[in-house]
Amino acid sequence: MASKIVASTQQHLDILDVVDDLILLKNGGAACVIQTTSVNFDLLSEREQDAMIGAYANLLNSLSFTVQVIVRSKKMDITAYLEKLEQVEAQQPTPQLREKVIAYRGFIQELITKNEVLDKRFYVVIPYQPSISMPTGGPFSWLHNLTGKGQKRVRIDKRYLLEQAKTQIAPKRDGLTKEFGRVGIKAHALTTQELVELLYEIYNPGVAPEQKPKLNPEEYTSPLVEPAVAI
Known about the structure:
Blueprint: E1 15-19, E2 22-25, E3 30-36, H1 46-62, E4 68-75, H2 79-90, H3 95-114, E5 118-128, H4 158-183, E6 187-189, H5 192-203
Antiparallel strand pairs: 1-2, 2-3, 3-5, 3-6, 4-5
């Protein structure tokens, strides 16, 4: 009796690999993710608001390529902050100061428990999609590669895709980061490690807050997605 083959959840994802600060896709494309800070527009003066609007308009007019803006809202994780408070508590020279830190830590824990405090993160995605050349064999022969009996699985040369994506995305990423700086917004492209952690949080919303695995990009051969249906 032949052994049953269990498919990995990664086979159902559009992600081919995460390498050199880029997300490689199974359709032959790639993407760079830039994380940005935010600006409290309401706290600016009228003059500052006008300057911000003008700078943002210039940023939009400077774009000659497609971008995607993503806003993620998730429950704030203050684990690292509470651990830091415990260290501060241990360093206090007097019992009175330690009690003050303990009371403050308890106040923060109660505040987070009773209220849904959300953490908003802002991302800008720069995609790369190579132009699809028309195969030989007639004007509609490409349909056989996508549907029907003659469906073929496209094999992707990851090294070639990575080189092409870097060439196309790098100047766009650097230019967009500079434009954000003129608006007063700090921006940086996510590293490979940060991309892996972000994808883990997106595909595992239920366990990600409790489990903070130190995912090594070179070792994530196991599925990063928890199954929605128990097997």
